[in-house]
Amino acid sequence: MTEQILQELFPTLAAIKSPGDVQTLDEKELTRLGEEIRRMIIQTVSATGGHLAPSLGVVELTMALLRVFNPARDRIVWDVGHQAYAYKLLTGRLDRFHTLRQLDGISGFPRTCESPYDHFGVGHSSTSISAALGMAAARDLAHQDHKVVAVIGDGSMTAGLAYEGLNQAGGLGKDLVVVLNDNEMSISRNVGALSSFLSRKLSKRWVQRFKKEAESIMRQIPKIGDDIAEYARRSEDSLKSFFTPGMLFEAFRFTYIGPLQGHDMRMLTNVFQQTRELEGPILVHVLTKKGKGYAPAETNPTFYHGVGCFEPETGAARKFDACALPSYTEVFGSTLCKLAEEDERVVAITAAMPEGTGVSCFADKYPERFFDVGICEQHAVTFAAGLASQGMKPVVAIYSTFMQRSYDQIVHDVCLQNLNVTLCLDRGGLVGEDGATHHGVYDLSFLRHIPNLVVMAPRNEPELQHMLATALAFDGPVALRYPRGVGEGAPLAQTPTILPIGQGELLREGTDGVVVALGSRVSPALEAARMLCEETGKDVAVFNARFVKPLPAEQLLALAASQPFMLLVEENALPGGFGSAVLELLADHDALSNLRVRRLGVPDRFVEHGSQKELRARLGINRDGILKALHALVR
Ligand SMILES: Cc1ncc(C[n+]2csc(CCOP(=O)(O)OP(=O)(O)O)c2C)c(N)n1
Ligand SMILES: CC(=O)[C@@H](O)[C@H](O)COP(=O)(O)O
Ligand SMILES: [Mg+2]
């Protein structure tokens, strides 16, 4: 969009040249600004995909924050950061907003490298209070006096990390503002005891009625009744906090303000102005509607939480051909349901992502065997360990990137006790547009050295089915990782079979070298081998390793002994990944002297956002990249 069109269609927004400009607008202009921000977000996300409903819900909140806090001085820390689109638009990124989440475009999350107004990088949840507290401590050590504000959602408040931050903040008594953006939603409906406590909405009206009735009773007490009533009246704040969510936060020594209507910008601005003058830790509880201002998103905030391309007029998802295929997530979910039919010890656990991890169908079918623990990946794994210790067969479905949080629980609670826990790491590999915070490219590296754990990755949909059945039949812990998105349309198995642990399969014969590939890289490796043959007449073998731990050692050593080179291909970080594991095996068996080995994978740097296809091409791990590497290897 040219500057001229921007000015015509979004005049108020285009006039914001720096965040401070928001403070100069009158009420009418602010209303127009809010409307233009929403329109811009809907229009852009309909074309790029992204976190629509969370961002639409905080338009007024963002404007109110910028009316009172100056991000050139004050620090604003967004939790998860998936709701920060309005903030991006008001802090100098309007002209690049159309590149949201696109290759080389702006990120879908706050990034310190993207803007001086992004004070803390984020993408995973529940970090904001700890980070903001660290900033407040640094400010005090430097004798500065700016404000620090953390904005955290009710879903993100289900993680223990948030309470670790609250606990220290209350103990230190630092000047810190925490804004709790409560829309009663995580991605799905928020869960847990805290969520129902927060949403108890003990409204002012309820408290006032209670007070009125109590006061009239007190006044009837002879002689001292009026004094007691007067004391109680003065104690309104503590009375209110006793009966509202304030009770919880006051216990952490926060001053609690709320609950407030989060779309009333004038009121929010006033409250933030007053909050600015207060000292110590303060929690402002704001009630918002997820998807506010866009009917489809208000009606179905889960679908529009993170959405693909859609028609802005209707909200209907844009269909692409690939959509006809089931995703790995769907294959996992339906297979799990099937396997659970045969074994009632199978239970499913998700950490606030039943839709994303494909276990919603399981939840519907077996509600008593399904647990959504909230955004608590660490707890999820230890909870599974507890279940397994009593003979159950828990399946923990968590995205690879979020499983990073559970490393110690996997080591200490699951593997050390050799428990029957199946860890299903969805979104293993490059996830695409969510970018660096979300790529699941470290799981093989952080799992493969843990004793007792079996680690595997399927090459296609039926192999995922077989691997899930294998995991559930295995006596011990198993980690299974599979990619984001659709597979290749391979026909599904009616009855999944159990695979021999630590055995791969030779998919293509050849004597001019061998490609050893894992998971999603197997099919591109096969294609590359076929193309190489067409182009050069050279025949390279292709081996699907299936297992990272235990490695198919005998098969790999036999290939090493018979082939001139071995090309190792994976969609994981090269350091410590699958290729490293094979190299260790080969070195330990003196199998390297007559063998040239090359590795393809994710290099030792963070990979930014872009489509999976673009990123794989850029990293040279797609068909063409593998073919190029083969051309360089064959002689
Ligand atoms: C550690 C971690 N686990 C899971 C997620 C996936 N996730 C992103 S947003 C979200 C829901 C957050 O709910 P809330 O904080 O209330 O924000 P809302 O979307 O309601 O605005 C989840 C589960 C994540 N980003 N980080
Ligand atoms: C912000 C966040 O962490 C999630 O919303 C995530 O973006 C979902 O990713 P998928 O789109 O792969 O389910
Ligand atoms: Mg929420």
UniProtKB/TrEMBL annotation:
MF-aspect GO terms: 1-deoxy-D-xylulose-5-phosphate synthase activity
Enzyme category, top tier: transferase
Binding-site residues for Mg(2+), renumbered to this chain: 154, 183
CDD domains given in the database record: TPP_DXS, TPP_PYR_DXS_TK_like
Keyword terms, alphabetized: Isoprene biosynthesis, Magnesium, Metal-binding, Thiamine biosynthesis, Thiamine pyrophosphate, Transferase
Domain Transketolase-like pyrimidine-binding: 326-490
Cofactor remark: Binds 1 Mg(2+) ion per subunit. Binds 1 thiamine pyrophosphate per subunit.
Keyword Magnesium carried by entry: yes
UniProt xrefs under SMART domains: Transket_pyr
Swiss-Prot/TrEMBL catalytic activity: D-glyceraldehyde 3-phosphate + pyruvate + H(+) = 1-deoxy-D-xylulose 5-phosphate + CO2
Cofactor: Mg(2+); thiamine diphosphate
Binding site for thiamine diphosphate: 82, 123-125, 155-156, 183, 294, 377
Stretches of the chain forming a coiled coil according to its record: none
UniProt subunit comment: Homodimer.
NCBIfam families: dxs, PRK05444.2-2
Function: Catalyzes the acyloin condensation reaction between C atoms 2 and 3 of pyruvate and glyceraldehyde 3-phosphate to yield 1-deoxy-D-xylulose-5-phosphate (DXP).
Protein name: 1-deoxy-D-xylulose-5-phosphate synthase
